[in-house]
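Whiteboard transcription, Tuesday session. T.W. wrote the structure tokens on the left side:
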């Protein structure tokens, strides 16, 4: 059951709440999902992406018309058809491979984009700069080199006539997080996650974006962010971005209050808490023991943390004249099918987040969660849930002042 009654969030009342936004060329947000590096890495039997036709037809059935993937640009630029040995990022999470794997990026990247084109699905290109056995990503020693690898990758896509299917280019996921961009050293160096505002970072981003834009002026270009201090959108000039890709989760609000409470309750119960959340089952053991009591003690409190952040993000980015895309969101960051874990509360928060974002008029593409892929069966199998929310997303307006011809062409 949805937390929202159809009478509350049906088309009539939804449209009444947002009808006063001016529509421009009938542009509405795309319903997007994040298939990260999983689209290429998770191709063993049962991993979810071994049959692209099946995965894409199911994505289309659920109402999505865009997908964000890793283009592995550093590997394409080095040798597009080489078979690369990749090291796992983690073994406990279900994005990508849980162990060492081998991939060949081209011609697979172009084959996948061509498949998306067949299904009427736009492709957002991003990168997590996956680590291979030679650690090729550490060859990125400057912003110019960063731009160069993307230009070479886009050239391989252009050669096959597929650029029209590219929705945007995100030059690095969650810049400058040290897992995804270990080649970049901030000043001071301890500023990593969310710390994109330093002079050295701003100069790097501006240079790289400018060089790629010079070669491909028709493409939407940016760096995606994972930070909670959204007032920086007003304090720093990001006019060299075409849009903002901001990741929002309830659990990160109020200095990570939800996670802190899970840890504190686990500590009091005598369970281990000082472990690495990317690699340890203990995080899930603690979550299983505490999430229901914690969330359902005050669900309206947690929901308000989420909706307040969404509305404030929309307000600040609109003042910065940046439309929004969000592909990682809205409730908890890390989750999966696991004994004694329910998807109900996650879907509850994700529906609330997606609908709230749609109502602001500030988003040009909206995800329902960062779990919208076939490897997350509990989320993926609820077809009606996806269809209901993607219909709302695709019927929402976008504020006309956030649109220009470049964005409109990308969305069509």
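and on the right, the sequence the group agreed on:
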């Amino acid at each position: 059951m949805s937390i929202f009654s159809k009478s509350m969030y049906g088309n009539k009342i939804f449209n009444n709440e947002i009808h006063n936004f001016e529509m421009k060329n009938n542009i509405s947000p795309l319903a997007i999902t994040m298939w990260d590096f999983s689209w290429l890495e998770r191709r063993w039997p049962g991993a979810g992406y071994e049959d692209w036709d099946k995965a894409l037809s199911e994505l289309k059935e659920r109402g999505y018309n865009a997908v964000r993937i890793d283009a592995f640009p550093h590997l394409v630029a080095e040798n597009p058809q080489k078979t690369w040995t990749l090291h796992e990022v983690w073994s406990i999470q279900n994005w990508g491979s849980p162990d060492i794997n081998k991939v060949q990026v081209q011609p697979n990247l172009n084959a996948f984009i061509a498949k998306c084109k067949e299904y009427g699905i736009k492709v957002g290109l991003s990168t997590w700069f996956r680590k291979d056995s030679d650690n090729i990503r550490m060859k990125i020693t400057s912003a110019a080199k960063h731009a160069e690898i993307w230009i070479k990758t886009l050239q391989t896509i252009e050669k096959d006539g597929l650029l029209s299917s590219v929705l945007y280019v995100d030059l690095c996921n969650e810049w400058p997080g040290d897992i995804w961009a270990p080649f970049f050293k901030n000043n001071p160096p301890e500023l990593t996650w969310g710390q994109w505002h330093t002079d050295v970072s701003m100069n790097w981003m501006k240079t790289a974006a400018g060089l790629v834009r010079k070669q491909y002026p028709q493409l939407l270009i940016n760096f995606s962010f994972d930070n909670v201090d959204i007032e920086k959108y007003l304090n720093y000039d990001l006019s060299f971005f075409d849009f903002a890709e901001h990741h929002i989760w309830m659990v990160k609000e109020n200095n990570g209050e939800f996670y802190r409470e899970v840890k504190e309750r686990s500590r009091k119960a005598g369970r281990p808490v000082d472990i690495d959340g990317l690699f340890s089952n203990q995080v899930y053991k603690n979550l299983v023991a505490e999430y229901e009591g914690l969330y359902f003690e005050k669900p309206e409190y947690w929901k308000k943390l989420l909706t307040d952040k969404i509305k404030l993000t929309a307000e600040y980015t609109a003042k910065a004249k940046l439309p929004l895309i969000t592909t990682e969101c809205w409730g908890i960051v890390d989750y999966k099918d696991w004994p004694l874990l329910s998807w109900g509360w996650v879907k509850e928060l994700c529906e609330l987040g997606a609908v709230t974002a749609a109502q602001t008029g500030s988003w040009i593409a909206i995800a329902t969660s960062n779990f919208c892929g076939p490897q997350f069966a509990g989320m993926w199998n609820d077809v009606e849930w996806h269809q209901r929310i993607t219909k709302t997303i695709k019927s929402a307006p976008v504020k006309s002042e956030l649109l220009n011809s470049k964005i409109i062409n990308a969305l069509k």
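Someone added at the bottom: Residues 1-20 have pLDDT under 50 and may be disordered.
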